[in-house]
# Entry
Amino acid sequence: MDLLQTTSEALRLLASLDPTLWGIVWVSLKVSIGALLLISPAAIAAGYLLASHRFPGRRFLIVLTQALFAFPTVVVGLLLYMMLSRQGPFGSMQLLFTQAAMVIGQMVIAAPILVAFTLSAVQGADPRARETAIVLGAGRLRTAWTLLREVRFAVMAAVFNGFGRVISEIGCALMVGGNIAGLTRNIPTAIALETTKGEFAQGVALGIVLMVLALGVNFAMAWLQGGGARR
Amino acid sequence: MSPVLAAGGLRVRAGEAMLIDIGHLALERGRGYLVSGENGAGKTTLLRALAGLEPVEAERFAFYGKPTRLLPYPGAMRRQIAFVHHHPYVFDGSVGDNLAYGLRAAGVNQKEIAEKVSDAAAWAGIGHLEKRNAKSLSAGERQRLALARAHVLGPDLYLLDEPTANLDADGRRLVMSLIEAIAREGRTLLIACHDRELLALPGVERLHLVKGRLEG
# Structure
């Protein structure tokens, strides 16, 4: 394998807007952004509730969230596979090897990140923010909205962090998506497949896209954290 | 005429420690009260308790003569009692947005909000700052914004925690003039303060706290 030749071939593939390659990128973006859009409201609300309310079992839920944070994605995929397979409790829904199954898997993977980051952001908020909202007559919902708005940079960083994790995960996508060309083949599963087939150029091209996305996410987070620090 | 609030056996605890233990407290309408005391005497805690920000117990409590339970904190008291922190918090948004916050929470319509916000900003002498981000204001401007943000809601009782502390001479003078304006409107003021200038407010009465108890 000539690295230089492979890289130039990869760049040529990217520049030529190769439909197969960009189709794979599109599947990745659609699944990961869809998963985040679906899970973010509930996960951010859960993070807020864990941070701002005392109730029995709260401590356990926080520890559970932190434990799930480091849960291997392939195990998430395995559990989801068992639930969605024909003999599983949700087998009749015929979701296995669909983009919907990949979205569900990525929602499960992103949720603990979003909950834990939101929890930490709300706990780190100035306590006077909540008190000021309350004494000015805000109800629970408005107080929650106000507080989340005050820590919005940290919450947005949580969403970007979740995106960074799901866009690059392979274990769950492979298990429940099945790596079907044109349907569930996303960037990480395609890279793995192309490499084993010896098709390095497409693997490198997709790797470049993934790197650009990851760098973009990191720049976005750095910018957001800077924005938060200025305030 | 009933006092704004009258309390008997008012207590705030933190575990075993008793932070506030007041046998009797009555705040008459239109009067100014200055709560003095050493650091840690309970001045801020008393104000926070009356604002519903600390869990408080009271053997007897009446708001405008009406017996009232403090837990959960009654909505009527929330509407009539303003609390301003020692270092007021301003929301990340324009000065106008900050002034509008309580009005929006109260469901006031947009047109009325715009008028009231403009009046409140002018009242506090921050009309020229209405579009500025509140986070960029100086300490004195923030204090005036916080007073205006409370004043726009028209409360009867103001609980002000060290409103003139850490301000320069100009800032103090401007904040003092707003507090005097509130007093002239016939509102009741309970101010935790070391500032002797505030003692010159009309009809001001001094309450001295020692280890959470009222003395003298």
About this structure: Helices of chain B lie at 43-50, 75-80, 95-105, 110-123, 139-151, 169-184. Chain B has one domain: 29-54+74-215.
